[in-house]
Amino acid sequence: MNNLIIIGSGCAGLTAAIYAGRANLSPLVIDGYEPGGQLSLTTLVENYPGFPDGILGPDLIENMRKQAERFGAQFKAGAIAEVDLSKRPFKVVTGSETYETRALIIASGATAKMIGLESERKLVGHGVSTCATCDGYFFRGKEIAVVGGGDSAMEEANFLSKFASRVHLLHRRNEFRASKIMVDRARANDKIHFITPVVVEEISDVSRGGVEYLTLRNTETQAATKLPVEGVFIAIGHEPNTKVYRGKLDMDENGYLITHDGTQTKVPGVFAAGDVQDHHYRQAVTAAGTGCMAALDAEKFLDAHKLSDAAL
Ligand SMILES: Cc1cc2nc3c(=O)[nH]c(=O)nc-3n(C[C@H](O)[C@H](O)[C@H](O)COP(=O)(O)OP(=O)(O)OC[C@H]3O[C@@H](n4cnc5c(N)ncnc54)[C@H](O)[C@@H]3O)c2cc1C
Hints:
There is one protein chain. By secondary structure, the chain is of the alpha/beta class. The chain contains 8 helices and 19 strands. Strands 1, 2, 5, 6, 7, 8 and 19 form a 7-stranded mixed β-sheet that branches. The chain has a 5-stranded parallel β-sheet with strand order 10-17-11-12-13, covered by helices on one side. Flavin-adenine dinucleotide binds near residues 30, 33, 45, 47 and 284.
């Protein structure tokens, strides 16, 4: 029987583990498929407070993990495949183990949707990005591309035009899913150049360790062209890692968990933190902030149920 299980070891889960560890709750953190979460995929992080020269994402995560371990957090490999939240203690099941817990923090994050190219995967953090707020600053005065046709692609293109010399907006159709007002705003921006209907077939040059040009295929004429750019932002959406909570917790139409009064879900004793409940800010510092909140909320909940929990 655990006091507190934390699902996910990104910035939200690790911050929750630091706070819960210091509150003597001996939290158990389940790592999932991606120990360290999204930051472990990136290179330089320049906007996390406290690091004037920036810090590598994997180093930042490693520091947080050591800090959580120092206060007694335990880590287990495995991804949660099933949960029973119908009564306390809650049960969480990985492939081979079932764990029981008096309180639960879900910090399973969200995964950026990718085009699916091998070159894209290899160049993440080396010119390929899924986060304009995080990485736009690195592309000052450079020519870049944004892939996508929804509101977030338009928003990212507009935001990136503040830094880049030119932003090519690439979309596979001539029509956009984005609202008209967002498309009109992007079209009115001199720095944004629309290229449609195209798909990105290849991001080059993996052998040189950076983005130099894209190979585009026109979906109507099948003609291939090369587009020289130094960066490419993939803005085709995110998928929150919430499948196992379907029908058990409230979610919005895109599957993000809905919280109220801080980090509480609709089930008392189950809390959510980080990108799994935030489709708007999606930053390491906001994930860490809500991780802290979730640990404090869980601590208060466990305190209030101390007497009845003695029997669990
Ligand atoms: C390439 C890249 C660069 C970025 N750069 C920056 C930056 O410079 N600055 C910034 O502030 N933000 C940046 N971000 C955004 C930042 O990384 C995220 O906002 C932050 O990581 C969210 O933290 P999280 O803990 O909520 O989720 P995540 O980091 O997504 O972690 C989720 C965790 O949950 C686990 N998990 C998922 N499903 C399960 C399951 N079923 N069972 C158990 N565990 C599970 C995963 O294995 C992982 O450990 C970047 C993101 C990316 C992808």
